[in-house]
Amino acid sequence: MISRSLTATLTALAAIPLLPPPLPAQQLITLPPEDRPLDPAFEEVFRVGAIDGEPWEIFSTLVKIDFDARGNLYLFDGVTRASAPARLALLEQLRVLVFSAAGAFHHEFGRMGEGPGEFSWPNGYTVMRDGTTVVNDVRHGAYQLFDPSGTFIRMVRVPDEVGMTSKIQRDPRGGAVLAETSAMNMGRGTGWATRPVLRLALDGEVVRADTVAEGWLPDRSAPAEASEVARSFGLGALTLPAVFEPELLFTVLPDGTVVHSDSSAYHLRLTPPGARSVERVITRPISPRPVTPAVKEAYTKRRDEEMEARLRKAEEAGRRLTVLGSSEPHFYPVLPVIEVLAATWNGRIWAQRRGDAWDGGGPIDVLTPAGDYIGTLPAGSTAMPDAFGPDGLAAFIEFDEFEVASVVVRRLPAAVR
């Protein structure tokens, strides 16, 4: 017999608005519930990075890696502020290291400064297929473009109404990058009713923005204590996402189709170029897990440990780190099924599901844009590649026992490219 408390919990979870229902015109494809295991037998091509050696072999903080169409590997290596976690990429230094498709060091470029071609708070990075490097530079308020040799080409100014975001991806067709707006819109007060994916054309002096997909925007009504903390620091009515709120994950297929996930459920939405509205939804009957008291406790413990570590680093560097209050975090009620989304150069979709732990490391589903299920790379068998390249290349950032970073490039088998 099901207990009354369990029945109430299941009823509450069923009432959570995981995502808006698909429109009747959308094609709905349901993948099988059982996993079909794939063998992660990836051939190693080369690796770069060392604990000691030439300057180009020793990395500080790899904030991004990418490929161009010739298979050249680009590493964006920076030095972060002592008081900031690496994922925020608040860089005090940045250099771009370029390696050939065989792993030979080719050249490096990039320096900090206020002039054109110099970096001043860079926080978004990608490489176009033709080898043009694009760096989002916040203090310049522009995207900076460099040719394959690292020579500065020009800046493309970003209008205030578009805003800056660190989450950019190249348009495989060239001439533009794609960005999602979650990073620059903290709540509904900004005027957005959705979380749009924007195509930012870089062919003029000023960015031209077009909406190419729209993600669902969850309700971000903050608890009273969180709002009071924000007001005490002069942040007004700022509202932050709940912990484990479903992110807007997106990737771009070779033809420009945008694939995005915007909910806690297993739903991948495909929007063809020029359509703006979703044409196909791919789903699997895998339900999100509830955020239990044990999950909340584990998350809060790690958060506190990371904050203590950042405070120690700031103190060692002679800096003062301001902490925005110590109130209990506001949690979303369920853990999103999908946590990472990417696409290969041949158009395969890789969707990593959340594993048994709340903090990632789950199996990776591989499927086609048409909704054909190729199979699943089992949990723990491989990490999600940090970059996909041509001819089945995939690059992974790895760390040794001393936390020294290296980049390993492997070649994927044909079935999953």
Briefly characterize the structure.
With 417 residues, the protein is mostly beta strands. The protein has helices at 4-14, 224-232, 293-316; strands at 27-30, 43-48, 61-67, 73-80, 91-99, 105-109, 122-127, 133-137, 142-146, 152-157, 168-170, 176-180, 195-201, 208-215, 249-252, 258-261, 267-271, 280-283, 289-290, 334-335, 338-343, 349-353, 364-367, 373-377, 387-388, 393-399, 405-411. Helix content is 11%, strand content 34%.
How is this fold's topology laid out?
Elements: H1 4-14, E1 27-30, E2 43-48, E3 61-67, E4 73-80, E5 91-99, E6 105-109, E7 122-127, E8 133-137, E9 142-146, E10 152-157, E11 168-170, E12 176-180, E13 195-201, E14 208-215, H2 224-232, E15 249-252, E16 258-261, E17 267-271, E18 280-283, E19 289-290, H3 293-316, E20 334-335, E21 338-343, E22 349-353, E23 364-367, E24 373-377, E25 387-388, E26 393-399, E27 405-411
Parallel strand pairs: 1-18
Antiparallel strand pairs: 2-27, 3-4, 4-5, 5-6, 7-8, 8-9, 9-10, 11-12, 12-13, 13-14, 15-16, 16-17, 17-18, 19-20, 21-22, 22-23, 23-24, 25-26, 26-27
